[in-house]
């Protein structure tokens, strides 16, 4: 994980994904990846906190109104789709200044959302068609139904994306003055990440060799959509499940959140809540949205082992030989639940464990929190700050107003993994992914 130049994403994976989305920040390597991350620091995310809280409040009110309309003590609500709609609205506005209105739909299908969903629905994922497209040169050009759908949707997406990029470029130049005036790194009002990325890319002190092409910038739109939408909604959904299963933790967290004197705290104020931070860490340990990742060696290497082993010939090894082209699976969820690392209570939801972590945990080279939920090293998720603050804003807003309980027995909820870890009710498997919870207003 910390040797990103020697271990990269497999070529097959890169081909399959980039043929659909282009060279977005999720799918490029090396210097190209480093060029594309100017807009994800805390200084930039700080300006987006109010948006996170506004959309969280909108979701809170939707659930509160639903509870009030039904008039029951507890109201059963499938929280997964609503959280997904909330994070879609957030990434649309915060990512590229685009209003999906998913939480308050007008009945009209949003063209960009439709194009992105068509691509995701037709891409094939782990299907034979998807694999063949990555393995066989030219296979993606065969006129299969999936290929036609992907190409049509991608064309539509790129058209809309190009329009958005042109609008942002015009905005930046207009706010900088005349078109021949140099663009500086400060002094414009646009807060969405696409605008910040373009502004940094257009700054006069950036060497020409480091500038992104317009098509590279357009490629960030589906990247923001995938990385900033479904992963966060999955994590928040599992967090509400964990809190519903553990009322002690839920109440302790709520008591801390209630100490905040206002409903619209700043990012810095959210960062001062220690138990909220522990709950996030424990959620992402037990329920990482991405359960595994793969890396491919670019050259021969020897990976050192913590404990030597003896092979069938009686020879002792303290390293494992990896050949050029060999692939290594990093089982994130398995590592996060290993009792040898986390202790005998590794499968339990215990935020307090983060107050004094085992020595073995402190050596995990994750980009945040000694876990691999955001990967690690130079190829770590550069949007992790965005995700964390959005996560905190959601929990802050929801837990101060609403109580959550299980709608089905805890052991009836299963983890279904298809790229992301999703919940399913085993007794209602035919309904697909869902997370039914009981909700009511907080009682004093």
Automatic annotation (TrEMBL):
<comment type="similarity">
    <text>Belongs to the cytochrome P450 family.</text>
</comment>
<comment type="pathway">
    <text>Secondary metabolite biosynthesis.</text>
</comment>
<dbReference type="InterPro" id="IPR002403">
    <property type="entry name" value="Cyt_P450_E_grp-IV"/>
</dbReference>
<feature type="binding site" description="axial binding residue">
    <location>
        <position position="381"/>
    </location>
    <ligand>
        <name>heme</name>
    </ligand>
</feature>
<keyword id="KW-0408">Iron</keyword>
<keyword id="KW-0503">Monooxygenase</keyword>
<dbReference type="GO" id="GO:0004497">
    <property type="term" value="F:monooxygenase activity"/>
</dbReference>
<protein>
    <recommendedName>
        <fullName>Cytochrome P450</fullName>
    </recommendedName>
</protein>
<dbReference type="Pfam" id="PF00067">
    <property type="entry name" value="p450"/>
</dbReference>
<dbReference type="InterPro" id="IPR001128">
    <property type="entry name" value="Cyt_P450"/>
</dbReference>
<dbReference type="InterPro" id="IPR036396">
    <property type="entry name" value="Cyt_P450_sf"/>
</dbReference>
<dbReference type="GO" id="GO:0020037">
    <property type="term" value="F:heme binding"/>
</dbReference>
<keyword id="KW-0479">Metal-binding</keyword>
<keyword id="KW-0349">Heme</keyword>
<keyword id="KW-0560">Oxidoreductase</keyword>
<dbReference type="GO" id="GO:0005506">
    <property type="term" value="F:iron ion binding"/>
</dbReference>
<dbReference type="InterPro" id="IPR050121">
    <property type="entry name" value="Cytochrome_P450_monoxygenase"/>
</dbReference>
<dbReference type="GO" id="GO:0016705">
    <property type="term" value="F:oxidoreductase activity, acting on paired donors, with incorporation or reduction of molecular oxygen"/>
</dbReference>
């Amino acid at each position: 994980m910390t040797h990103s130049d020697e271990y990269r994403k497999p070529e097959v994976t890169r081909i399959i994904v980039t043929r659909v989305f282009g060279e977005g920040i999720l799918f490029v390597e090396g210097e190209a990846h480093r060029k594309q991350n100017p807009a994800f620091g805390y200084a930039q995310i700080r300006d987006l906190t109010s948006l996170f809280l506004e959309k969280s409040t909108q979701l809170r009110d939707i659930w509160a109104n639903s509870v009030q309309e039904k008039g029951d003590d507890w109201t059963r609500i499938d929280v997964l789709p609503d959280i997904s709609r909330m994070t879609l609205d957030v990434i649309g506005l915060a990512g590229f200044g685009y209003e999906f209105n998913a939480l308050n739909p007008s009945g009209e299908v949003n063209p960009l959302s439709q194009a992105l969903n068509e691509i995701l629905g037709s891409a094939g994922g782990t299907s034979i068609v998807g694999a063949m497209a990555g393995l066989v040169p030219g296979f993606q050009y065969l006129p299969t139904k999936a290929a036609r759908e992907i190409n049509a949707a991608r064309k539509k997406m790129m058209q809309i994306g190009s329009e958005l990029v042109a609008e942002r470029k015009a905005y930046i130049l207009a706010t900088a003055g005349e078109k021949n005036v140099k663009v500086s790194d400060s002094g414009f009002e646009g807060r969405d990440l696409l605008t910040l990325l373009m502004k940094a890319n257009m700054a006069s002190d950036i060497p020409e060799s480091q500038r992104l092409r317009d098509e590279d910038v357009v490629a960030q739109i589906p990247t923001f959509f995938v990385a900033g939408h479904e992963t966060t909604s999955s994590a928040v959904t599992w967090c509400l499940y964990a809190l519903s299963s553990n009322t002690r933790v839920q109440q302790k967290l709520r008591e801390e959140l209630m100490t905040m004197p206002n409903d619209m705290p700043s990012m810095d104020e959210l960062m001062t809540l220690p138990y909220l931070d522990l709950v996030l860490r424990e959620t992402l340990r037990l329920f990482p949205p991405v359960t595994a990742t793969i890396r491919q060696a670019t050259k021969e290497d020897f990976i050192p082992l913590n404990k030597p082993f003896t092979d069938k010939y009686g020879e002792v090894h303290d390293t494992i030989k990896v050949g050029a082209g060999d692939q290594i699976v990093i089982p994130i969820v398995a590592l996060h639940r290993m009792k040898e690392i986390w202790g005998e209570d590794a499968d339990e939801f215990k935020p307090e464990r983060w107050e004094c972590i085992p020595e073995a945990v402190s050596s995990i080279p994750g980009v945040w929190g000694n876990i691999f939920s955001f990967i690690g090293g130079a190829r770590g998720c550069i949007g992790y700050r965005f995700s964390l603050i959005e996560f905190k804003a959601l929990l802050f807003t929801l837990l101060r107003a609403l109580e959550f309980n299980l709608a089905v027995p805890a052991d009836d909820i299963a983890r279904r993994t298809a790229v992301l870890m999703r919940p399913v009710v085993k007794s209602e498997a035919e309904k697909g992914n869902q997370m039914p919870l009981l909700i009511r207003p907080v009682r004093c």
